[in-house]
Amino acid sequence: MTELQSTDELLEELFGDPKAAAAAARARLTQPARRHEDVQLQLDPEVLRAFRAAGGDWQQRINLALSTWLVENDPKQIHSA
Fold it and tell me: Which of 7, 8, 22, 30 could form a disulfide with 54 if both were Cys (CB 3.0 to 4.6 A apart)?
């Protein structure tokens, strides 16, 4: 079994510079409030455990992680295995 990473470590590994991610998050906070859309998605168990282990707002952190990723990446470039 692998050791779980902290959310900060995981985000830094996935998205690079945490200062850039924080700046992007602050920029989004200054935008008008948006409604979130309820969806159902499948996550790897270790991903879900890592986000849940960091506390109760894990769904918002997953949303932030994905939003931050979109700043520098194109989802069309990901191909499923």
Answer: 7
